[in-house]
Amino acid sequence: MPSLQSKAIGQIQACNNVNDVKSIFEQYKFELLENDGNGNKVVALEFQNVVREKLSSFNLNDEEVKNVCNGCHQLIQV
Known about the structure:
8% strand; mainly alpha; single chain; two-stranded antiparallel sheet; globular
């Protein structure tokens, strides 16, 4: 049985549009929290990377990315 993160990543990779990415990100962002090096809660880095790559594949400008979802715009700038 795949992990929750593997399931979420698979769903992001299968998205065909920005709204689908937003929906999947919102669905999993709280379930995929982990601690960073400073003890802060962050969305799992592997999941963030997949979201960033998928959003980049849609050739969005910074303003469009900011409109996708709260927090997603930060992923594209990392």
